[in-house]
Every structure is written in structure tokens, then in C-alpha cells.
Amino acid sequence: xxxxxxLKERIRSGQTTIGVQVPYNATKSQIEDxxxxxxxxxxISVDSQHNxxxxxxxxxxxxxxQDLSIPVHFRIKNTYYTWQIGNWLDLGPSLIxxxxxETEATAQEAVDYFYYRxxxxxxxxxxxxxxxxxxxxxxxxxEFWNNYGVLMLQVESIQAICNIPRLIRPGVDxxxxxxxxxxxxxxxxxxxxxxxxxxxxxxxxxxxxxxxDTKLMIRNYDWTLRDKYIGMGATVLLxxxxx
Length: 243
Prior knowledge:
Number of helices: 11
Strand order of the largest sheet: 1-2-3-4-5-6-7-8
Mean pLDDT: 95
Helix content: 25-40%
Strand content: 15-25%
Number of strands: 8
Low-confidence stretches: none
Largest sheet: 8 strands, parallel, barrel
Shape: globular
CATH class: Alpha Beta
Structural class: alpha/beta
Radius of gyration: 17 Å
CATH topology: TIM Barrel
Distance between the termini: 28 Å
CATH superfamily: Phosphoenolpyruvate-binding domains
């Protein structure tokens, strides 16, 4: 963990931040191999929304990444599990993503269970937590975490995109993109102005977030699309590993 970059500060300052996906059960050597393919990577990502959830594997991949001073992004299983965010954070990730966020209630519940008191209501505990070795005292760790962890809410429908002004609030660092499910929703709402294309939705979201403390994250997958989405206003990207 020592020397691990504070992504929250980096993201809040608007610096370009790039993550790369790794297998859910990636070993330390696999992480090193994937991460070493590009010196612009800033974090790795594992996903439970569309993969079997194995908490033992999450601890293992988080510990391996901590040994390499690499933050771990973890997309939780389902929107309705926001109450469990604190428990998953106890297993070692540094970034949490809530899929299919639609409502203010979900956004607030995510904030509540992501942060420690007095800002949130996350419960104390968890030996694998990132940074606990350097900040073993309760209040010291709570202050560290509240200024370190990154919370993102994924919007995957036209309604969610229109709700962005009501979703963002103190503690929400990123609005992230779900292009596949959004495409389903655009196809079901062809009369809506935002149904015309994914790019139109991205541009709308970037404009809404302009001047706020919350930034835009895009799953660009293909590293050759970096400049496109950065030019559209995204500052955080998530890519598939380079070959």
C-alpha cells in the first residue's frame, strides 16, 4: 500500500486517469503483466456485476494489487446491494462502482455506506482494508478513507442521464457510463432527443457535470479511443488490456 496514489485527489483535480480490466481472480504476476503494458494506467478493475462473486478472490486480487501499490476498482453485483458497499470495501478495493443507478435514494445510500462517520455511516472493521497498516487508529483511518476512496455511480438509461443533476452530491466522485444497457434503453425510447446516439448522451452528461466536483468516467475499452472521449469531456477511462 505504501506509496499508492491518491486517485481521489487526481480525479477531483481533473487529471486524465486510466484503468485497465483484469480477471476477477488475477494473480500478482498477471496484474504486473497487464499493468506493465502501458505506463499511463492508474488503477485496475474487477467486476462482479457480470461475473460470479467470490469474496475470497476479491481479497486476493486486492492484496496483490496493494503489494504493487495499485488501486483496485470494483463494480458491485447489483444496484440493490448499495447497503453492502462497506463490507466489500473491508475486503480491499479502493474504488466502488454502483451499476444501473437511477434514483436519488440509491445515490444517497451509496454515499452513506461508502464513507465513515461523521460524513457517512460505514461500519468499522476489515483486516484487508487498503491503507489500514499505515493508519491503524480508528479516527485516523476514517479520515484517511474519507479523503482517499473513490465512489462512482453508473448511469445506464436515458432517465438516469437526465437525473444526473439529482444524483451528484458531496461524496460522489464519478458518474460512469454503461454503453450496452444504455443502447437498449435508447432503442426503447426513440422519440427522446438523447436516443440519437451514445455520443449525444456522453456530450449531455459532460455538459451537466461541467463546473461540478463530479467527473465523467467512460468505459472506452479500446485504448485507441482515449483521445475521442477525453475530447468529449471524460477525464477517467476504463480499458481492456492491450494485446
